[in-house]
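Revision sheet: C-alpha cells.
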Amino acid sequence: MRTPILAANWKMHKTIKEAVNFILSLKRELPQNHDRDVVICPPFPALSEVSKVLDGGIKLGAQNLHWEEKGAFTGEVSAEMLRDAGCQYVIIGHSERRKYFGESDEWVSKKVRAALNWGLRPILCVGETLEQRKAGQTREVVSRQVRAALEGLTPSQISQIVIAYEPVWAIGTGVTDTPSEANETCGMIRQMLEERAGYEGAQKVRIQYGGSVKPENIDGFMAQKEIDGALVGGASLDVAAFVRIVRFEALAGRK
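Predicted:
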C-alpha cells in the first residue's frame, strides 16, 4: 500500500516567527508518524528557520522554484537553494501560479526536471477550471497537464513525483468534488501514468486530492482507493485543523 502524504500549502501566510511557533505546536500534537508522510510548505523566507525546528516526522517543502540553477532571474529561487534550506519537496504548477503568473505546461515540465535533478520530490499540481469542467473537458485538460509535465522522464523519475489533483473551481471556495468523483479522476491519472511508467511504476506514484480539504471531509477522501493524500490550503493554517486532517480515520479501510 502506498504511504499517504498530507501536505500543507501555506501560500502567502505566516511570518517566520508564526511559522516556527506553528511547527513547535504541531510537533507537540503529532507523534512520529510511521504510516503517513507530513509535509509543510511555508513561504520562502521561513524555510531555513522552519527547517531548524523540524524532525524526521515532518518534511519541509517549498511552494515554487525556477528551472535554472542560477542567473539573472530577480525574485526567483533555484532547486539547489531549496535543498540548501532543508527542503525535500516542492510544489510545482499550482493553479495560482498558472493563473496569476502565466506558468505554462512547458515551464512546469522544466521545473519538474530541475527538482528531480537536485533530489527534490515534486508535488505536481493539475486540475481543470469550472468552465472546463462544465464543458466536459476534465479528462482532456488533466491529461494534457500530466503528459506535458512527465514528457521525457524515466519510470524511475516518475515514481519520485507526487501528483496533486486540484480542481481549480474547488480551491479556496469551500466547494469540493465528491470523494467518488475525485477518486475517478485520480484513477484516470494513474491510468495515464501506466503509459509512461508501466503498471508497477504507476502504482508507486502517490496521488493527492486538493481543493477545500478540511477536517470535516478528509475521511471521505482518504477512504478512496486511488487517493493517497491531500494538498491542504486554508485548513493547514490552523494547528488543530491540520492535526485532524493528518489523523484521518479511514486508513484501516483502504486497500
